[in-house]
Amino acid sequence: MAVRLNPYLNFDGDAREAMEFYRDVFGGTLTLSTYGEFGQPDAPDADKIMHGMLEAPGGLTLMGADAPPGTAHTPGGAFSVSLSGDDAAALRGYWEKLSAGGAVAVPLERQMWGDVFGMCTDRFGTPWMVDITEPAA
């Protein structure tokens, strides 16, 4: 098996909604497991997501979960999830869906280095960067 690097996002009780949103953005297969399914069926947080994994076309994998019971949720942090490549139509489609209902920090437009680039934070507090390069000649 090859090594993969997968972003793992944490949420404050809305992991199911967020992961379903990302499935709508990227497509693919979403698997969700709750705390109740893993030995805590009577706990107050039994229906919260202990682990979620979205495997989308093109090799995209995104994981996420609700913050464990008794753990503080700290949104944002010092990270962004970056999408890049030369498939302008796909990347613009992701941008439109991710930025809808969120906040755009840098509009998706041509930058001084030549790429089309934008930064936004989606409605779940996840920061995204989208960079569209020119297709190779």
TrEMBL record:
* Source species, domain of life: Bacteria
For this protein, the record's CDD domains field holds: PhnB_like
Under Pfam families, the record lists:
Glyoxalase
> What GO molecular-function term can you cite, just one?
methyltransferase activity
InterPro entries the UniProt entry points to: Glyas_Bleomycin-R_OHBP_Dase, Glyas_Fos-R_dOase_dom, PhnB-like
What residues does the Glyoxalase/fosfomycin resistance/dioxygenase domain cover? 5-129
Query: Which keywords does the record carry?
Result: Methyltransferase, Transferase, Ubiquinone
| BP terms from Gene Ontology | methylation
Q: Which PANTHER family would you find in this protein's record? A: PROTEIN YJDN, PROTEIN YJDN-RELATED
- Name assigned to this protein: 3-demethylubiquinone-9 3-methyltransferase
Q: Which organism is it from?
A: Streptomyces cyaneogriseus subsp. noncyanogenus
